[in-house]
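queue> holo job accepted (adenosine-5'-triphosphate)
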Amino acid sequence: MHVAVYPGSFDPLTNGHLDIIRRGAHLFDRLIVAILENEGKSPLFTVAERKGLIAACVKGIPGVEVQSFSGLLVDFMEHFRATVVVRGIRAVSDYEYELQMALMNRELNPGVETIFMLPAVEYTYVSSRLIKEVFRLGGDITRLVPPQVLESLKARLPVAAR
Ligand SMILES: Nc1ncnc2c1ncn2[C@@H]1O[C@H](COP(=O)(O)OP(=O)(O)OP(=O)(O)O)[C@@H](O)[C@H]1O
Ligand SMILES: [Mg+2]
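queue> job finished
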């Protein structure tokens, strides 16, 4: 039984994230999407809201579930007997940070392997930060996020506030 964890802030989930989740689900028996509770990032959506959104979007993808965590990823993984970290790489700019995190996690637990996955080319420029920025400015992001996320963005950031 191979259990993998896909950690991130997912504030909010994008079609890029969803693409990685679908690909990861093919490779592992169980893929846990793990929302990092990180107050420092002053998120748009609460952890509970993000959890609900992700759960709605991954419904129907076999073996995928959603959890949240604070503290060390390796501790969270041990609790769920997960041995693989899934991360997405968009451009070379992601590489340096991802390399650091992967090697630190290996230092903390040599039994943990990190696997990097590439999204479909059409999502390689999509980030949660950019989605929020473009949406705030009135740009059309329909193609880049799941429908549930688009609805939540509309509810959270009404036209007047944009
Ligand atoms: N469009 C995408 N394609 C592939 N991987 C992605 C994509 N967006 C995010 N990821 C990866 O998903 C993981 C979690 O990312 P994270 O939650 O930080 O999303 P993000 O879009 O980078 O958000 P932010 O803009 O807030 O940093 C990271 O490994 C990140 O590289
Ligand atoms: Mg990021």
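queue> The two ends are 47 Å apart (CA to CA).
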